[in-house]
Amino acid sequence: MKNDEHSNSRERDAGFHSSPVVSSQLDVHEALEETVRKHVRTKWQHNVRSETRAAVVPLLQEAQDGGRPLLLDVGCGTGLSSVHLAEHRNMQVLAVDQSAARLNKAPAHDLVRFIRADAADVWCLAAELQFAFEHVFLLYPNPWPKPGHLKRRWHGHPALPLLLQCAPATTLRTNWEVYAREWHRALELCDRDPELREIHPKTPFLTRFEEKYARSGHTLFEVVSDSSS
Ligand SMILES: C[S@@+](CC[C@H](N)C(=O)[O-])C[C@H]1O[C@@H](n2cnc3c(N)ncnc32)[C@H](O)[C@@H]1O
């Protein structure tokens, strides 16, 4: 076996190999614009879980009162990005994921607070407190590739206006170009000025999924928007 074949099969064995996103949807969803505009017009009626409120409100209030910047890592998975962002920027990070199994694998870190929650609950609470994160990272969200799944993607979710209310600056990364283009368009519809580009990350990768996708040869995309300056 040649060396590269050997390392490819090793990566597959280690769970690194991943197929690109397959979807019958090849372009920006035709209902995207109408969906985003409707969510911007209407206030989302939603009850935040009490345990999330109890965990998140004191944290946001503490950062607010102390005037300390806080980063938000949405769908942080096993927390590689949360730790990297905290150390790289020397800032506190609120790292949120709904999966206990993934959070159980996250490392303890002084600057990172891992919380199991629905990210939309956290955006609701931040909007309620008029709290703004320094930067919100949405790294490799689940693509929900079926056309009928538009409302499960972050830009099709009714909580999008609340997210943008607490996030003057955002970074989204994905291995599905359609997702990146939809997110870009949704931000434009919300009066942001986002930039979409192809990225070629190398080791050390920012997240576990980034590593898996990059090593599997996928094209990766990043959309950055910063309305804070
Ligand atoms: C594809 S994984 C990416 C994980 C990590 N960001 C990475 O790149 O390695 C998507 C993550 O989003 C989490 N997630 C999905 N929906 C969520 C929600 N509504 N609230 C919080 N986390 C969510 C999943 O549990 C999963 O860990």
CATH topology: Rossmann fold
Question: Biggest sheet, in brief?
Answer: 7 strands, mixed
Output the structural class: alpha/beta
Q: How far is it from the N-terminal to the C-terminal residue, by CA?
A: 54 Å
CATH architecture: 3-Layer(aba) Sandwich
Number of strands: 7
Rg from Cα: 18 Å
Element-level helix/strand string? HHHEHEHEHEHEHEHE
What is the percent of helical residues?
Answer: 25-40%
Shape field: globular
Low-confidence stretches: 1-14
Strand line-up of the largest beta sheet:
3-2-1-4-5-7-6
Q: What are the distinct ligands in this entry?
A: S-adenosylmethionine
State the domain count.
1
Q: Which CATH first-tier class would you pick?
A: Alpha Beta
Q: What's the CATH superfamily, by name?
A: Vaccinia Virus protein VP39
Measured by DSSP, the beta-strand proportion falls in: 15-25%
Mean pLDDT, to the nearest integer, reads 93
Topology:
Blueprint: H1 3-13, H2 32-41, H3 50-66, E1 70-74, H4 80-89, E2 92-97, H5 100-103, E3 112-116, H6 119-128, E4 135-139, H7 160-165, E5 169-174, H8 177-189, E6 195-199, H9 208-215, E7 220-226
Parallel strand pairs: 1-2, 1-4, 2-3, 4-5
Antiparallel strand pairs: 5-7, 6-7
Helix pairs in contact: 2-8, 3-6
The structure holds S-adenosylmethionine.
Residues 75-77, 81, 96-99, 102, 118-120, 139-142, 207-210 line the site of S-adenosylmethionine (SAM).
